[in-house]
């Protein structure tokens, strides 16, 4: 594909100028020929990608292209859906994530998840954060652990004087940061985020985006987003998915292109990526 210049008004594309080394990729996940089925239906087919350590990877694409389905494979959340199964291979630090010896509960402790809609427990702010460490039998002073998680989630200063209040009294943006703090509290390595800002206003969205970039110093982050500008602003690498219709008229999600975000948004290798980014379809 010849070089193109794609205009993305009012968007700053995060790229190699950021203080990161994108030349060498330290793999956390390696995905090889991944297909995901719900019963007999193949929702996603033949995905290959690598998720780098302490990078933010964004997955973009139109609705129904399999982004969230692939995301849930990284912590085996799809196991909880009757009839769901994954074919192909996903390794986590070289270990088969779906091997017979692997405990999916331990997988979900190491690989935390933040959902589209904030979902705090109907408990106090303190108990929301302390719940996971207590269940996992983590040692140490709980007060210190709660403060550390809330501080990392940029929420401590806003809630330190009301830790006994019900978490549902917080604003939507605060609830989402609380959910991020709750995920951090069990000390995962990876944080998965499924459209974490879709229910938030622009100010709360900016806080979450700033938080993601700060957290990526210590955590590997994979985010699904419909917001291309958000992917351009926060991610190091971007995967573009689309939905294809086969000869039988059945839709399947496919990974079209995976590259550094700066290339995806300025010089994509596939015409379908260019068409989506410029608004010609999707």
Automatic annotation (TrEMBL):
Keywords, A to Z, come to: ATP-binding, Nucleotide-binding, Translocase, Transport
Keyword Translocase part of the UniProt annotation: yes
Domain (ABC transporter): residue spans on this chain: 29-268
Mention one GO molecular function: ATP binding
Q: Name one GO cellular component term.
A: membrane
InterPro entries under this entry?
AAA+_ATPase, ABC_transporter-like_ATP-bd, ABC_transporter-like_CS, P-loop_NTPase, PstB-like
* Keyword check for Transport: yes
- One biological-process term from Gene Ontology? phosphate ion transmembrane transport
Return the SMART domains for the record.
Answer: AAA (SM00382)
Q: What is this protein called?
A: Phosphate transport system ATP-binding protein
| Organism per entry | Nonomuraea soli
